Amino acid sequence: IKPVFDNATPVTQAPEPQGFLDDVLQGFAQAQKTLPAKYFYDDAGSDLFEAITRLPEYYPTRTELAILDAQGPAIAAALPQGAALVEFGSGSTVKVRRLLRHLPDLAAYLPVDVSESFLHAQAAGLRADFPVLRVEPVAADFTRPFSLPADLGDAPRAGFFPGSTIGNFEPAEAARLLRQFGAVLGAGAVLVVGVDLVKDHAVLEAAYDDAAGVTAAFNRNVLTRINRELGGTFDLDAFAHRAVFNDQASRIEMHLVARAAQDVAVAGRPVAFAAGESIHTENSYKYTVESFRALAASAGWAPVQVWTDPQALFSVHALRL
Ligand code: AVJ
């Protein structure tokens, strides 16, 4: 169990089931080599993702922010009065700020994040900007069960899960996650979740293969991490970035494709690549309003309302348990 800042609610969570090396070796032992997308996000990777969100081709972040700005009052009105609002994977809190200004009667805001130092800094910033808001940071991995602080009283519960992070999970895992959010929040809760929409394949593929090569650098960063943290010998230039929309599965897939046959070592263990062989590094599932509602329903959540931008690029759903 990691130490927790004294202003973050300590939660009891088992340690990470597997470490980076185990995940990498296991992923490379598959017929289709694969790496978990969560390893993109070290400091350099988080900076690269920030840069992605500002790319002209990467529409999701700015479109979701535009929906939150345009529909903030309506989204706020869909939440129960005096709610305790839990944000799953709160990060920089940029998005929730767009809602908080419309929620003067919130009982508490509970950002949940694994990065304790970041959580600490973000909570301090929020307290400065929203002096009457009770901010109760929770240091936890939202993908695994955790409990809320006991002293929230009978405030109704609301949840916030923006960014289409849900799209990074296999549909069955996404349903499991939504069900777990329900278990954390309880019956009667309202969940607001941002979901990227299916659209023209060229638009989708450009968003994940930008002209400036930022997404390519983000993708290759996972190899940089393997080299630095696991004694890997990857030649970054020997792997091409590829992003394709898989129509059947309704997802963008990111791959790193070996330009030629090569042998690489990871922690002293050999890993062989054939020419053209890929490492599947990320899935980003895209939903229609209907297909996401079906997924949510399978996890016990009923549709309340949905908001989209004028071009129907992105959706923000309110769901009730
Ligand atoms: C952070 C998972 C929402 O899938 O669009 C962006 C990650 N990967 N470009 C996404 C990502 C490549 C992003 N999410």
UniProtKB/TrEMBL annotation:
Q: Which residues form the Histidine-specific methyltransferase SAM-dependent domain?
A: 22-320
What domain of life is recorded for the organism? Bacteria
A GO molecular function assigned to this protein is: methyltransferase activity
Q: Does the keyword ATP-binding apply?
A: no
- Write out the entry's keywords from A to Z: Methyltransferase, Transferase
BP GO terms, sorted: methylation
Protein name per its UniProtKB record: L-histidine N(Alpha)-methyltransferase
Organism of origin: Methylobacterium radiodurans
